[in-house]
Structure formats: structure tokens, C-alpha cells
UniProtKB/TrEMBL annotation:
Family note: Belongs to the binding-protein-dependent transport system permease family.
Localization annotation: Cell membrane
Annotated protein name in UniProt: Peptide ABC transporter permease
Transmembrane stretches, start-end: 12-30, 96-117, 138-157, 188-207, 243-268, 288-314
Protein topology in the membrane: Multi-pass membrane protein
PANTHER family in the record: DIPEPTIDE TRANSPORT SYSTEM PERMEASE PROTEIN DPPB-RELATED
Record organism: Planococcus lenghuensis
Keyword Transport: yes
UniProt GO cellular component terms: plasma membrane
Pfam family, one: BPD_transp_1_N
InterPro entries: BPD_transp_1_N, MetI-like, MetI-like_sf
Superkingdom: Bacteria
The keyword Transmembrane helix is annotated on this UniProt entry: yes
């Protein structure tokens, strides 16, 4: 498994290189740049603008700009943000913690709820409870994420006034105090619920359908013929084999939830890398856009590797070479 992991890491290097090329050249095709987005040509001296462009290297050929940017990345330098006036790595790291908290909370909600509902529906198929779970799944599958977000804000923030609708911390809360962490949790609940509820329908159906299918296989009938208790049959034989596809999805969720947080963070005004990504595109802060895109690509590759390793861990029939 160690050799396989090292091989996958080596394969990720050229993929990240190709991603960096595509991201960089797509960014250069966007209208304007960070300088033209922050300076009004009608109120600025054209000579000053030309000097600034030359100083920042914006007049250099595209391939020269890419080589300079890629060379900086190899040295751990992602450049500076023109808007925030700070290194891109520090800016992304300052927002990344909020997104990680949001993603972990969403994954906890997704797997906890889908396991409970899928386990119940798979053990009691074609009952009223099973049909209720399926109706809930169809509703969640048909509901766009922004609609679910608006409904949650309207119900729990405006009508019930239980949770805040935006931000990541309440005003006036001192950093590091107990109230600070409670406020962090309260502000993360609604976006985490919204982000976590959307995959629940698919995972619940996977677990339900696999449980029903595995319950009809020969090894289950053999266990029943031997007089094994139904609870043992379900937990040891049916459920254990049914959760294999769900467990392997954990790796893909690492990248999927981080990517999906772009929309959710924007709706909830949650200061993570998703909202930073959208704001940076609007402000033509290309160095930040490229840094975040490269980071998401790296998380995608890491997630795929974790998914493969988990698949081999939960299913002994799989051997990685």
C-alpha cells in the first residue's frame, strides 16, 4: 500500500502541473486584471498606470508570467493579493480554517443521517417508514442548494430566530473565549446543515438498496440456515457489506464538499475560501483565484487517493499494487 501511495503521489505532480497551466491561462483570458480592476482610468495618470503594469510584470508575455508564477509556487510563494495587500498563502490559510470546520461538520451530518435512515429503510423495506424515507430523499434530490439555504435562513434565522444567518462570529466577541467558540459553532450550523443535507438522499438510497440486495445473497441464506440470529446476520453480514460503497465516498466528499462550499458560503456570507474565491474573481485578484483553484485541485487528488485506500481497507478482496 505504501508503494501504491507513493506512486499515486508521483502521478499527481504532472496533473497539478497541467491544472496550473489551464488555470493560469484561463485567468489571463478574463477581461482586465487586478490593476485595472482597482484603478479608475478616468481619474489616474496613464503614465502611472503603465509604470505600475510594467513594475508588476503585467506587460510581460503570458508564458513569462506563468513561469514566474510557477517558479514562485515551487518555492512556496503563491504571490501577493492585489486587493488584500498580503501574501496569497497567508490569506487562503486565514480563510481555510472556517471552510474546514464547515466541511467536517457537513460530512458528520451527511454520514450520520444517511447511515441511520439507510439502515432503517434497508432493514424494513417496503414499509411506511421506508416509503417516508424515500419521499424525503426525492424532495432533497429535487431541491437546489440555494433554495435549501434560503429556506433554512427564513425558518431558523428569521422566523424562529434560533441561529444567525450570516458571518462566522458575532460582533464584540473576544477571540479565544468560550463565547467565541460557541459563536463559531452557532454560525456554522446553518451552512453545515445545508451543505450536509444535499448528499444524504443519494447515500441513503445506496445503503438501502445494497442492504436489500445483500439480504438476498447466498451467504445470508446460509447464515440463516445455520440458525444465526437475525440481528447478527444483519449487522455482521448485510450491513458490513452494504456500507463499503458509502465509506469509499468519504474520500470524494473531501473535494466535493470543499467545492460545493463556494455557493453555500456566498449565500450565508460565511468567510471561507469559497466566498474568497467568488470575491477574488469579481475583484480580478487573479493570484488568489489561481491559488484557490490549485488548492482545490490538490484536495481533489488527495480525496481520490483516500477513497482508493479506504476501499482497500474496508474490502479485503481489493489489493492495491
Amino acid at each position: 500500500m505504501l508503494v501504491y501511495t507513493l506512486r499515486r503521489i508521483a502521478m499527481a505532480i504532472p496533473i497539478l502541473f497541467l491544472v496550473s497551466v489551464v488555470v493560469f491561462f484561463l485567468a489571463t483570458l478574463m477581461p482586465g486584471d487586478a490593476l485595472s480592476g482597482k484603478i479608475d482610468p478616468l481619474n489616474s495618470d496613464p503614465e502611472y498606470i503603465a509604470e505600475m503594469r510594467a513594475e508588476l510584470g503585467l506587460d510581460d508575455p503570458v508564458h513569462v508570467q506563468y513561469l514566474r508564477w510557477a517558479g514562485g509556487i515551487l518555492q512556496g510563494d503563491f504571490g501577493d493579493s492585489f486587493v488584500h495587500k498580503m501574501p496569497v498563502s497567508e490569506l487562503i490559510f486565514s480563510k481555510l480554517l472556517n471552510t474546514v470546520v464547515l466541511a467536517l461538520s457537513a460530512m458528520l451530518i451527511t454520514y450520520s443521517v444517511s447511515f441511520l435512515m439507510g439502515r432503517y429503510a434497508g432493514r424494513h423495506p417496503y414499509t411506511i417508514g421506508d416509503y417516508t424515507v424515500q419521499v424525503f430523499n426525492y424532495i432533497m434530490l429535487a431541491m437546489p442548494s440555494f433554495v435549501a439555504a434560503l429556506l433554512l435562513i427564513y425558518l431558523f434565522a428569521f422566523q424562529l430566530n434560533w441561529l444567525p444567518a450570516s458571518g462566522s462570529i458575532s460582533a464584540g466577541v473576544e477571540t479565544g473565549t468560550f463565547a467565541y467558540y460557541i459563536s463559531k459553532i452557532e454560525h456554522a450550523i446553518l451552512p453545515a446543515v445545508c451543505l450536509g443535507l444535499l448528499p444524504i438522499a443519494s447515500y441513503t438510497q445506496f445503503l438501502r438498496n445494497d442492504s436489500i440486495e445483500n439480504g438476498r445473497k447466498d451467504f445470508v441464506r446460509t447464515a440463516r440456515a445455520k440458525g444465526t440470529a437475525e440481528k447478527t446476520i444483519y449487522n455482521k453480514h448485510i450491513l458490513r457489506n452494504s456500507i463499503i460503497p458509502i465509506v469509499t465516498l468519504l474520500g470524494f466528499d473531501i473535494a466535493g464538499i470543499l467545492g460545493g462550499s463556494v455557493i453555500i458560503e456566498t449565500i450565508f456570507t460565511y468567510p471561507g475560501i469559497g466566498q474568497l474565491f467568488i470575491d477574488s474573481i469579481s475583484n480580478r485578484d487573479f493570484s488568489v483565484v489561481m491559488g484557490i483553484a490549485l488548492l482545490l485541485a490538490a484536495f481533489t487528488l488527495i480525496g481520490n487517493l483516500i477513497a482508493d485506500l479506504l476501499y482497500a481497507a474496508v474490502d479485503p478482496r481489493i489489493r492495491l499494487h
